[in-house]
Amino acid sequence: MSDIELTAEAFAQLKKENSKLKLEANLRRSLSTQLEKQKKIADEAKQEAQEKTAELEVLSSKLSRYLSPQIYEQIFSGNQDANVTSQRKKLTVFFSDIVGFTDITEHLESEELTSLINFYLTEMSTIALKYGGTIDKYIGDAILIFFGDPESKGYAEDATSCLKMAIEMQQKMQELTNFWGKNFSLKSALSIRIGINTGFCTVGNFGSENRLDYTVIGSPVNLASRLESSAQPNKIIVSEETYLLVRDLFALEEVGEIKLKGISRPVKYYEVISEQIEESERLIIDTSHLKIELNQTSFGKEDLLNLENVYLKMKDMMNEIQNATDK
Prior knowledge:
single chain, two-stranded antiparallel ribbon, elongated
């Protein structure tokens, strides 16, 4: 093969290799361009997702203010369905309102009234959440709270938490005595009254497929509301059902019986005196075989006489058993 033919062949081979290199370069440029496009699309999708997440967080935060924290957590954790369903539970129900609020609304301008009621509800709600109460709703100045759903610590503990909450609310109102006149156009300090009852209620989602309200209904709720209406300013009254659950932890005084519209039987109710039982109110029966410690304010005179008779009989029985053992 001549030099010319070898040169031509080498040139052809070089041209072929060059074409391959150009093709590879074009492929690399094309791949690089596609990767950049894909990266840009991914970055844009990530940015959009972050913006949507931020929007959802803001929306979620706003929505949470329309629901009690316990209910909000149940719904968004997937434990509570947004369906028209309910269940029967034993709850302790709390009602409160501001004494003379109708007259107050007639003397305050709309803006000042709004400021007052929002401040009051914020103070009371903070205390309610501290004790684990489920805030059902605000009805003007009235507050409906219940204990025992969606979570319960037991009937007695639920009732105890409710009373502790109520006592702290009244204490907070006492602390704010001078605040109302200084900050609002009020002639006198605000005072509240509270009614509490325990019983089996129906609790859950009520409404239509388009709008639901998580609330509690039933005769125990109605009784709590009636007791609240019967309470004196700055006082807490409880039904006998609640009293039986908490009488060993609080000083309560039987006020009497009241006949309430819509309820066939007279209802016994008790006024909460204090959270702690004073030492002078403790009745201690202590023998070598038996020790009983009671709150005297939890018993009427007749109950104490019956208790004394039971104690004497038990004492005689213990002595007889001891004598028989000694023989």
